[in-house]
Amino acid sequence: MDTTPLPSARGNVPGAQAVARAAHLLRLVTAAGTEGAAVGDLARLADLTRPTAHRLLSALRQEGLVDRDDATGRWLPGPELYLMGTIAASRFDVTSLARDIVRSLAVRTEESAFLSVRRGYETVCLVREDGSFPIRSFVLSEGVRFPLGVASAGLAILAFLPPDEVDAYLDRHDDLSDRWGAAHAPTRIRSRIADTKARGYAVNPGLIVEGSWGIGAAVFTNAGEPQWALSLTGVEFRFGGERLAELGRILLAHAHQLSTRIAGR
After folding, report:
1. pLDDT in tens, 138-197
2. Is 143 exposed, middle or buried (0-12, 13-18, 19+ CB in 10 A)?
3. Is the domain covering 93-263 a CATH 3.30.450.40 domain?
4. What pLDDT is stored for residue 81 in this prediction?
5. Coil, strand or helix at 234
6. Are the CB atoms for 30 and 77 separated by under 8 Å?
7. What is the pLDDT along the chain (265 residues), one digit of tens a residue?
8. Rounded CA gap, 159 and 138, in Å?
9. Total-model pTM
10. What is the CATH number of domain 7-89?
11. Kind and range of the H or E element at 13?
């Protein structure tokens, strides 16, 4: 999980640091899903002392943005998030537009198909549809986050961002290889970006989990910004040679269909 605050959280605005810390904790709690997260783990991921993390979480709890399971002590998303989310969904949620396209992608390819959205320096999986092939990859599921450039969805999005934005991202995240392996050093990511631009879709040849391959295609806003991605994952022998090229064509066609649908809503 990328724990770097978003650019909008920085600056000289009074109180910005406190807001950024609270927002960062809120994202971490949300990323933990229904299992919740312990305050010690949240403090470590947010680079905060345990007392500071607990104080901020308690303030968020008073506002209903997070909740705490008194039996386990773990922190969970709060009820106010649901209410806010239902309102924000009318502007930002494309899952209702995308679900049948993701399902079609899974049926056509027999692989697991996904919709992910860009959120700052990460992608978050929104929709998963499993195909009929019985052997599946479980690297990705709803709510899972990856830094841009790591999974195929994030690589597809990163490849079509403006070059100066790509440069700034890689300069700031030159430590991706520390967590995700040498294949995620900036020079290696730049090479895969070039390959992605050339073919139109990204390929992740088992770089997260050995033997689990993925391909991703960017989905664009009406302004031409890569804000979402469709992707497929499966076992290595299903993603080779001519079949990889055919999967890529199907994926790009579905991504274009979704981009067109989003532009017309």
Report:
1. 677 788 889 999 999 999 999 999 999 999 999 988 899 998 999 999 999 999 999 999
2. middle
3. yes
4. 86
5. strand
6. yes
7. 444 444 443 445 667 888 989 998 998 888 777 889 999 999 998 999 999 999 999 999 999 999 999 999 999 999 998 888 776 665 667 888 999 999 999 999 999 999 999 988 899 999 999 988 766 666 777 888 899 999 999 999 999 999 999 999 999 888 999 989 999 999 999 999 999 999 999 999 999 888 899 999 999 999 899 999 999 999 999 998 899 999 999 999 999 999 999 988 7
8. 24
9. 0.69
10. 1.10.10.10
11. none
**Which single residue is written with the structure tokens 């640091």?**
17
Q: Return the closest-CA partner of residue 220 out of 177, 245, 252, 256.
A: 256
Domain range summary for the chain, segments of one domain joined by +: 7-89, 93-263
Length of the chain (residues):
265
